[in-house]
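User: Quick sanity check before I run a bigger batch. Here is a single chain. Can you write out its predicted 3D structure?
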Amino acid sequence: MKTLTPEILLRAYAAGIFPMSEGRDDPELFWVDPENRGIIPLDGFHVPRRLQRRLRNNPFEIRCDTAFAQVMESCAEEAEDRESTWINQIIIDLYTTLHGMGRAHSVECWEGETLVGGLYGIALDGVFFGESMFSRATDASKVVLVHLAARLRQGGFTLLDVQFVTEHLKQFGAIEVPRNEYHLLLSEALEVNAKFPVQLTAGVESLWE
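Assistant: Done. Predicted structure follows.
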């Protein structure tokens, strides 16, 4: 792969492809264009009842874009359920640059001054490309995903791309769509003028009320 710039990366996302590496220490990247793509329809985003009760108690302080690099580094670390990740240093550097350009964002769970969960992704027109998340406290990754969805709805986004469907994401309504259908949804969303809101003007309860 030739030298990848933030501008090339954004064009790739607009074309429906994204980069990955074989592991944290792998210096190479490869392009991915899945036959079936994972998305979460924002108009059908589902919040499980137990999580609704948890959210009403405000278990964490939620911040956006205050520790983007730290979120990425945490997502790249090994965990109990994974020995390695696809996030290498090239990806960290590229997405951190995109964050500085206002194109990449993080949603963070804090307990005091300790970061206990978070996610990051790219915002492009009406699409948010969710990249990765991590959790060091019960429900932290679930809480940040709900807060992301609330912000995307508020900001006018029409497509939440999660790349691959997992059991974790299924409980929020994640589905797989064929590549050709995904590209149609992507094309439509790229015509939408959306803006990622750092602050919510309404609570996350709007997702289930």
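The helical segments are 6-14, 49-56, 68-76, 89-100, 140-155, 167-170, 179-189.

User: Great, the batch can go ahead then.
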